[in-house]
Amino acid sequence: MEIFIHTHNAMDQRHISPSWIFKQSSEDQIEAVCTKILQETETEKEKESILCKNCKSEITTVEYSTAVNGQHAHILKNPAGITFHIGCFSRAWGCIVYGIPTDEFTWFAGFSWCVALCAHCFTHLGWHYQSGGDSFFGLILANLVKDSKIH
Ligand SMILES: [Zn+2]
């Protein structure tokens, strides 16, 4: 009502209609909604699923990417000379951990490892590393895909 009274003059006739006032407030509302959607989109992006390439089960999400020894992705060679590109994840609920932890040929000093398989199709997805209370998954990036449905 304040605005209505102050802007009420002949020069400003087209600006004082109730519809203009309504339009202004709805634009503010639209802006607020847009900001909210943007924030939600960003959250959604962080939750982008990472799937088993073979069976498309959810293994983890981008949100749980973690850096080990200062980096998320590592290029590592096993004793048989096979090179793996792995990404580190703090959680991977789509994996089952198989075998007895060993520190033989470990790629991460101080960490013992066991094999991590897809819990759904048993594809070898990488390794689970643990050291005391610390643990993470090192997953073979070539065996994973990002869920293209969510962006
Ligand atoms: Zn699978």
Textual characterization of the structure:
The chain is α+β, with helices and mostly antiparallel strands and 151 residues long. The chain has two domains: 44 residues, no CATH class; 97 residues, Peptide methionine sulfoxide reductase (Metal Binding Protein, Guanine Nucleotide Exchange Factor, Chain A, Beta Complex). Helices cover 23% and strands 35% of the residues. The chain has two helices and nine strands. The two termini are 43 Å apart. The structure holds zinc ion (ZN). The site of zinc ion has 8 residues, from loops.
Identify the strand order in the major beta sheet: 3-4-8-7-6-5
The CATH architecture of the largest domain would be: Beta Complex
Low-confidence residue ranges: 1-22
Judged by helices, strands and strand pairing, the structural class is alpha+beta
Helical fraction: 10-25%
